[in-house]
Amino acid sequence: MSSNLPSIIANLLFFEEIPSYIVIVFLILAISLFLILIITIFEKRKGINSDEGLGESAYQDALKILDKARAESLRIMSRAQSKAQTLMDSTYSLTDAAKKELDARIGDVYKRQEDYLKKSIEELLITFKSAVEKGSEENIRTLVQTTETLKKEALSDITEFKEMLEEETMGAKEELEDKVKADYAQVEAEIDTYRQKKLKELNNKVLDILSNIYLEVIGKELDQPKYEEMVLKLLDEQVRKSGLKDVSSNE
Amino acid sequence: MSSLLDNKFKETFIDALSTKEAAGAFSDFVDRISNESYKTTEKISLTSLFPKEKPEWFILLLDKVGKDISMNDLRGNLETLKKEILNTEEINIKMPFKPSDNFLKQVQKVFDKAGYKDYLVNLEIDESGGLDTGFSIEGKYLSVSLKEYIRNYLMSKDVFKGKI
To answer: What's the CA gap between A145 and A132, in Å, rounded?
Structure first.
């Protein structure tokens, strides 16, 4: 029965003279083509699933990169602030107002950096979602590249902030050093003035003592004519030199 | 008679008076003249009203008035002169003892050279003020201190050099 099957099929197809082995070959080819078709469809489906996996992986990678960027930016900022604080503490004359201003400025930079990262991550996630939905491998690659760019930009801003903070800290330190120098010069001048004043007072006391001694000695020897002569001489000298003074200036 | 009140005579008369003390004596003299003039219409001997020592100003006045003078005119002019004399500027001198007349004249010369005119010397003796003499006129003052003089002398000799 089975040996007659090709003959029966050949008869049905009106090819009664076609040998049965040709029919067998044809059947084998048809089955092979079917299998190839099935395999192709399976592989195609498998490829689609692979694209979805790529999207998920890129999403996870992007989150890791952003987390890492955020952690790194906070670490850099924290280190820079700590260094700045150490520098500030090493100088004693920083006023409360200056400390408050510095804290406010650092706080402002922190907030701006945090807002920037938050906004960037939100925008990136929206873009990422859109790319995954479209299922485009090219979009996902672009997204990964964007994430890397964002990381670089974020870190670049942090570096600038770090440099700016260091620069301002050094500037503040120099200003404080100048202020200390100025304070020192002022104190030195005040001490010198005080010393001169005390020296003058001491000179005056010594002069008073000496003058009194001289006056006592001279007074004993001074008779009225000599005294009058001396007064007239001094009066004439003083009137010629400076004239008489206003009474008000004597009070 | 009117020359008794002219400026030139007044200047000479103030110079002759010299001190406020003398101006006081002149004022008393004018008061006596006035009193006597009301008692009689006869001529009065001025010298009899100033019997003691005749100061320079009195001799000057006597020369100026002469002998033939109506008492009414004399009284009126003298009272006017007295008022002006009492309003004359003063140089106040405060010193430890009464100075000689020569000293006062020399002082006046100094002030004359400094441009002050027509003033009387008001002398005040203050024995408690040490050896300082003070001068003041027209609201200005000058103190001559022997101690200050010695002090300036010591300073000019740089007595502190190398000691302080």
So the answer is: 15
For residues B82 and B96, state if they share a domain.
Answer: no
- With CB atoms and an 8 Å threshold, state whether A235 touches B131: no
Same domain, B19 and B78: yes
**In this predicted model, which residue has the larger pLDDT, A82 or A194?**
A194
Inter-chain CB pairs, A–B, below 8 Å: 90
pLDDT over threshold 90, residue B141: no
Candidates A202, A212, A235; nearest CB to B135: A235
For chain B, how big is the Rg over CA atoms in Å? 21
Query: Would the pLDDT of B163 be above 60?
Result: no
Handedness of CA B75, B80, B83, B85 (dihedral sign): negative
Q: What is the pTM of this model?
A: 0.47
B149 and B126 part of one domain: yes
What's the domain range around B141?
89-156
Domain count, chain B: 2
Q: Does B155 contact A232 at a Cβ distance shorter than 8 Å? A: no
Q: Residue B161 domain-assigned? A: no
Q: How far is CA A135 from the centre of its chain?
A: 39
- ipTM of the complex, rounded to two decimals: 0.77
Q: Which two tokens stand for residue A229?
A: 């002569």
Task: Compare CB distances from B155 to A207, A244, A248 and report the shortest one's residue.
Answer: A207
- The CATH class for the domain spanning A54-194 reads mainly alpha
CA A116, CA A161: separation in Å to the nearest integer? 13
| Final residue before a domain boundary, out of B86, B113, B146 | B86
Q: Find chain B residues with C-beta within 8 A of A210's C-beta.
A: 150-151, 154, 159
Are A227 and B154 within 8 A, CB to CB?
no
Q: Domain residue spans in chain A?
A: 54-194
